[in-house]
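Schema walk-through. Below, the input block comes first and the output block second. Nothing else is stored per chain. Lengths vary across the set, and this one has 65 residues.
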Amino acid sequence: MRRLRRLRPTSEISTSWWSDTAERPHAVWQADRTQLDLWVIASSGRPVRPWPTAVEDDHSRAVAA
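--- output ---
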């Protein structure tokens, strides 16, 4: 049987590796992808629902894609 280590209270856990905003450009990127409720005609002639993807620099809020 494995012995479990005791968990520290949340107030003691360091969150310096993650914050709401990055301290410098290109340190943290956020990406989101979702299928649209929209039909388009693909180059093959078939109707498809597109999947746009957005990537954003967390520091400058610049959109990369």
